[in-house]
Design a protein that fits this description.
This protein folds into two domains: 284 residues, Methylamine Dehydrogenase, Chain H, CATH 2.130.10.30; 133 residues, Immunoglobulin-like (Sandwich). By secondary structure, the chain is mainly beta. The protein starts with a strand and ends in a 6-residue tail after the last strand. The chain is globular and about 75 Å long. Strands 26, 28, 29, 30, 31, 33 and 34 form a seven-stranded mixed beta sheet that branches. 0% of the residues lie in helices and 42% in strands.
Length: 465
């Protein structure tokens, strides 16, 4: 088999909001979001010790991750810059390139372009729980709680490290194990809060573990496309785009607009609230006891916030426009009433040192069905019979049919399948195909439930230098 190799392979799956990953995140006294020109806009009137959180640096950004009094942003050149309070050197980001970042209370972790994890900060002695000791291996996602982190590998297994207990271990005894336990589950996405984590299983249901003193781990029924864990509260977007929050709600952070709530205690503000409106796409929470608020992006790309507004952190500026890269598949290549896949416009001829980019957009009216996405690469061959290889989540080209596992939940999604630097190659043209097949069905043309999207990349004859 003729092959080509890359310096790095980057897989970004389950990216919501039409190509923008985490376009909004919030801290205790502030909210920040990426605007339509990729710059960061922050608002709120935090106390003096946290005022730097609303003064973002110049530049263009792809992702934000915030915690108590600091925030980090992934820039369009894949470097990271952090701002806010630098209590334990958590603002001192390493000079490397990343595909994702996660902000802890006084530390941060980043997923590098080779899918390995690096963490930084200098925890004080009474705040050091080993949260900087990232495991080896390759991961597709990272998350950070107050003093712990979790990574999701390409098999869907979670590995967590850092603090194993919480300040309320015995009062009440309501924990679902430890937050650094590895649950016997397979997940497509994970999230970490103060002392608990949650993950979306392959069937769309959610499982939480760790601290559960306020009901933040008591997951409501249903299937979810996105979740976010706060410290005492958890929120999620169901597949019908209703927003659900559960746990502590002293500041109203678990009570989004147009929601109906169920009380779980006569003495404490423990609730489960579900919105009547079904037009939500992404939600984030920042809570620390008495100070808490939440924000959500709607399907029309507007932003709404609720909860504690003492510092005006829920008052979205009227002139703010959220960054959303519009997905627009060419309808002439689509099938009537079927999901549509289309490759984005990108360079087609590559040489040594070039950045290889292969990305795919999806449009579908059915947000409840689960499909298997197959990505097939045709390798150059001297024989008459083409040589096909299936591209999988674990960065392999396999001869046998193997799905690039992807639960389709949003009406529009964007997949950055390959982002790589070409270091060597076998010259020739490499056609790439993508198609959706009903979950569990054989990868055969007669089982296609979408169009068969096609693009190609070409490696020049002088790329083997």
């Amino acid at each position: 088999m003729k092959n080509f190799t890359f310096f790095t392979i980057t897989l970004l799956v389950n990216v919501p909001l039409m190509g923008v990953a985490n376009p909004v995140d919030i801290g205790l006294y502030h909210s920040c979001a990426i605007s339509s020109n990729n710059t960061v806009n922050c608002w709120g009137k935090p106390p003096k010790h946290a005022q730097k959180t609303i003064k973002p640096p110049e530049g263009q950004f792809l992702q934000l991750s915030a915690n108590m009094v600091h925030i980090c942003g992934l820039q369009t050149d894949n470097t990271v810059i952090c701002w806010g309070k630098n209590l334990e050197k958590q603002l001192d980001a390493p000079s490397t390139v990343f595909i994702q970042i996660a902000a802890g209370r006084y530390h941060n972790c980043g997923l590098q372009t080779d899918n390995t994890i690096i963490c930084w900060g200098e925890p004080k002695e009474d705040n050091d729980y080993g949260q900087l000791e990232a495991p080896t291996g390759n991961f597709q996602q990272i998350t950070a709680g107050w003093h712990h982190n979790c990574g999701l590998d390409f098999e869907g297994t979670v590995l967590c490290w850092g603090r194993s207990d919480n300040p309320w271990n015995n009062n009440p005894p309501a924990n679902i194990g430890s937050q650094i336990d590895t649950p016997p589950e397979t997940f497509t996405k994970i999230t970490s809060g103060g002392w608990h984590n949650c993950g979306i299983r392959l069937d769309g249901t959610v499982y939480c573990w760790g601290h559960n003193g306020d009901g933040q781990g008591n997951v409501p029924e249903g299937q979810f496309i996105q979740i976010h864990a706060g410290t005492y509260t958890t929120c999620g977007i169901r597949t019908d785009h209703a927003l659900v929050c559960w746990g502590w709600s002293k500041s109203g952070q678990a009570k989004p607009p147009s929601s109906t709530c169920i009380k779980h205690s006569d003495n404490w503000p423990k609730v489960t609230c579900t919105t009547q409106d079904k037009d939500f796409a992404h939600v984030v929470i920042a809570d620390s006891g008495e100070i808490a608020h939440s924000c959500a992006v709607k399907l029309d790309n507007t932003l709404v916030c609720w909860g504690n507004n003492k510092e005006r952190q829920t008052k979205v500026p009227e002139t703010f426009t959220l960054n959303t890269e519009t997905v627009a598949c060419d309808l002439k290549n689509c099938l009537t009433d079927k999901p549509c896949l289309c490759f984005n416009e990108q360079p087609t001829v590559y040489q040594i040192g070039d950045q290889l980019q292969v990305s795919l957009d999806l449009q579908t009216e059915n947000t409840e069905a689960i499909y298997d996405l197959y990505v097939i690469v045709e390798f150059p061959t001297q024989s008459i019979t083409p040589t096909y290889r299936y591209f999988t989540n674990d960065q392999q080209f396999l001869e046998e049919a193997n799905a690039y596992q992807q639960a389709i939940a949003l009406q529009t999604q964007h997949f950055n399948l390959i982002s790589a630097t070409v270091t060597s190659c076998t010259p020739g043209i490499y056609p790439i195909y993508a198609g959706l097949i009903a979950e569990g069905k054989p990868a055969q043309v007669e089982n296609l439930v979408s169009n068969l999207a096609q693009t190609q990349v070409k490696f020049e004859t002088d790329c083997m230098q």
